[in-house]
Amino acid sequence: MARPREFDMDEALDAAIGTFWTQGYEATSMTDLMEATGLHKGSLYKAFDDKHDLFMKSLSRYLDNPLGDDAGHPGRGQIAARGGARLAAGRCAPVLRSTGTAGLPGAEHGPHDTEVSSLLQGHHARVSTLLSETIERGQLIGEIRSDLTGEQVAKALFVFSAGLLGASKVLSDTIDTAEMLESALAMVTPG
Question: Hey, what long-range contacts does 160-163 have (CB within 8 A, 24 or more apart)?
Answer without folding.
Answer: 160/184, 160/187, 161/103, 162/102, 162/103
